[in-house]
Design goal:
354 residues, alpha/beta, Rossmann fold, 2 domains, seven-stranded parallel sheet
Length: 354
């Protein structure tokens, strides 16, 4: 089959980007064709990736692409710009259209609370041949918009190729990991909603009990320079490594080597990094956003004492790692199987309940 994935293409390496790339690589490994169309302002030169510079250029590209399936990946809100793109894609002849909506927090937002069949959003979403929800809340939202149940699938937006314990990290990170125990890791964008100063400040408390502890922050974003200045001002700056973007394989290896993954947020959806860490058996401490998966140690928003105590609790438990069963590719197989069902116009009602 021939597929095109439309959405944000890395860098940076956020959850939506990771899912898009994982589906693309899985398809190509299976002998299928999969192009990618970047919908952000970022520019690059990755093979098989298109970087349209305007809405007009994007429309021309979509008219030119000869594919069986257009798979759109939206995060955040259903903005007028994204809805216009969705409508255009569903109007193109000879293509099946699929949407994955990655915004776990949208159903509880003011916009999500107004979801209904007789809305423009509902009209456009019902035009898709298939929609993928990243959690039950999104699936229920699609149903409120009037999407037929047989067109809805709930598929978690992550896949993991478990690294070997012997896999090496980039040299700078390898040295930091070797020199710091216990090791705390956070993976995400360097943006205000991830409350990263809280983690950096809390490390001061953790070091009083664990003087060789270290915190690795992997990711990129608008706060990079501000965070570097803040770290440099700390007396314990050598215990914090603001690494930047990590390659996918190295990120998973770092998770496997870490004693805990931290996910502190002011606003968050269904985090891919949380799911990945749990799959690998790495303990996760995360701000309670009402939708964390089972097994996460929850803390209140911006609670330094709560984060400190949760870290102490997780480190003192010292339980053996318990990776989840499977090969980590289950969700990718589910996506491709959904494609096949759409191309054959065969639906399985037993898998449609939101």
């Amino acid at each position: 089959m021939k597929v095109a994935q439309l959405g944000p293409y890395p860098p940076p390496h956020g959850g939506v980007q990771t899912n898009l790339v994982a589906i693309r690589e899985y398809l190509e490994a299976g002998g299928h064709s999969c192009a990618a169309v970047n919908l952000t302002r970022a520019r690059g030169q990755a093979p098989g990736v298109y970087y349209p510079a305007s809405a007009f250029e994007l429309a021309r590209l979509l008219l030119r692409l000869r594919v069986d399936i257009l798979h759109l990946h939206f995060g955040g809100n259903l903005s007028p710009r994204l809805l216009a793109l969705a409508l255009l894609c569903t109007l193109l002849p000879g293509r099946k259209t699929v949407l994955t909506f990655h915004s776990g927090g949208y159903p509880s937002s003011p916009a999500g609370q107004t979801a209904g069949r007789w809305t423009l959003r509902g009209f456009i979403l019902r035009r898709f041949d298939g929609v993928i929800a990243v959690n039950a809340g999104i699936a229920a939202l699609f149903a409120k918009f009037g999407v037929r149940l047989e067109r809805i699938r709930t598929i978690l937006p992550f896949a993991v190729t478990p690294p070997a314990a012997s896999d090496r990290l980039p040299e700078k990170l390898q040295h930091f990991v070797a020199a710091h125990t216990p090791l705390l890791l956070t993976v995400g964008l360097l943006e205000p909603e991830y409350d990263l100063p809280l983690q950096i400040d809390t490390l001061e408390d953790i070091l009083r009990r664990y003087p060789h502890a270290g915190l690795v922050i992997a990711g990129s974003g608008s706060l990079e320079h501000e965070l570097r200045r803040g770290i440099a001002s700390k007396t314990y700056a050598e215990h914090v490594l603001l690494y930047g973007d990590l390659p996918r394989a190295a990120t998973l290896t770092a998770m496997l080597r870490s004693d805990a993954l931290l996910r502190t947020t002011l606003y968050d959806g269904d985090s891919v990094s949380v799911r990945e860490a749990l799959y690998l058996g790495t303990p996760v401490i995360a701000t309670d956003n009402g939708m964390r998966p089972a097994g996460v140690r929850l803390i209140p928003i911006s609670d330094r004492a709560g984060l400190r105590d949760a870290v102490f609790e997780v480190l003192s438990a010292a339980q053996p790692r318990s990776p989840l069963p499977g090969d980590g590719q289950e969700n990718l197989r589910a996506v491709v199987e959904f494609y096949r069902e759409l191309l054959n116009q065969v639906f399985s009602p037993s898998a449609t309940a939101p």
